[in-house]
Amino acid sequence: MEDMASNMMLPLVYGPAADEAAARLQHLKAWYTELYGADEVEFFSAPGRTEIIGNHTDHNGGRILAASITMDTIAAAAKSDDGHVHIVSEGYPDAIDIDLATVAETPHCQGTRSLVAGMVVAARDMGYEVGGFNAVVSSEVIPSAGVSSSASFEMLVCSIIDHLFNSDAISCAEYARIGQFAENHFWDKASGLMDQMACAVGGTILLDFSDGVSYRKVDFSYDALDLDLVIVNTGKGHADLSAEYSSVPGEMRAVAAELGATTLSETTKDALLQNLGAIRTKLGNDRAILRALHYFEECDRVDIAVQALEQGDKACVLRMIEASGTSSWELLQNAYVASDPKEQSIPLALALTQHFLKQAGAGVCRLHGGGFAGVIMCAVPKDKTADYVDFMATYFGRENVYRTGIRQTGAVCLGAL
How far apart are CA 347 and CA 336, in angstroms? Predict the structure, then answer.
């Protein structure tokens, strides 16, 4: 542990949790040695992400305020000379073994192996080097629950490829595109870039998807408001909800098409209101119109929040977060699956949290991530955090209530330690 404690990257990335991080890395080092021998390994970390404001806007060219979180995925890795990528992940029985000579022939939609193969193909197609390496991986990022465990893993693999073979020359935006390509073409999942960008960059960022993707750092943290970020996993995963997720961008684009646009970013709320009657008759889908209204108002909330931060009005940001959650529930309608109205774990978690926060006299909560199932977030006063964790653990289990925060460092090589 002494060699790890001397590395200054750990306090920079993990702050007061540096000793705990060192213990996790020590575990990985021992595991790597057991599997592959005593190579001189280097360590890597990539965080999960939290969406602050901007629920389901990226796919229609909108704006999002997002941040990386203190939950992360870590790896110990080193180059190999056999022309293969070997990855073993803690908690997963199947090791990944990819022959780089035939990587393009890897079958699609077969779990993480397909994902890694897609990333290798994307990196090479972009002109980057990829060689053989061995890695062991461990993650704290909640899987299938809206905090981007997949994107965290993708950005971790990007950081390994970048550092071991490309002298840390790959940009965060290219990291994100590599991950997106793998999901689009090797998982057949129509994902955007928001998750990957938030995991890759670190800290709080303003993302704008109106013309590709652009981003800039924004000065915001819950700690500055004396609040803790708590994620509650309601216990329902995302695996069977592809149709629900696809309906959101599809319906928004259907409204955009009636306004002569491809995405809602190419038109306006005023245009929608002026043509609402005709669109309603043509589409026969009130939900699509409500979702379009959510999009326009959500993008406005992002702009209001960023301006408020620049003016030092962080309380306004909390109001926008709360309004975003209300809109997701009422207009976007992704708090539960319409075809299964008896299962409403997210609305239940929100209702219980609102009850708690009313008694606490401060804090906000909202649906988190893609919705329909998964997690909610709560920004709770620090002196009430323990009570809130106990309160929600009563209903959802202590193992499903996570105290976290905004991490300022994105995907990174931690060094040899």
Answer: 7
CB atoms closer than 10 angstroms to residue 122: 22
Q: How far apart are CA 179 and CA 61, in angstroms?
A: 19
Token readout for 291 is 């979702």
Instruction: Give me the amino acid identity at 353.
Output: T
Number of C-beta neighbours around residue 15 at 10 A: 15
Mean pLDDT of the chain: 92
Q: Do the Cβ atoms of 28 and 78 come closer than 8 Å?
A: no
pTM: 0.90
Neighbour count for residue 297 (Cβ, 10 Å) = 14
Burial class (CB in 10 A: 0-12, 13-18, 19+), 147: buried
Distance, CA of 199 to CA of 202 (rounded, Å): 6
**Alpha-carbon distance 256 to 267, whole Å?**
7
Phi (first) and psi of residue 47, to 5 degrees: -80, 165
pLDDT in tens, 261-279: 999 999 999 999 999 999 9
- By the 8 A CB rule, do 185 and 98 touch? no
C-alpha closest to that of 207 among 327, 305, 66, 318: 66
Average pLDDT over residues 333-352: 93
State how far Cα 400 lies from the chain centre.
17
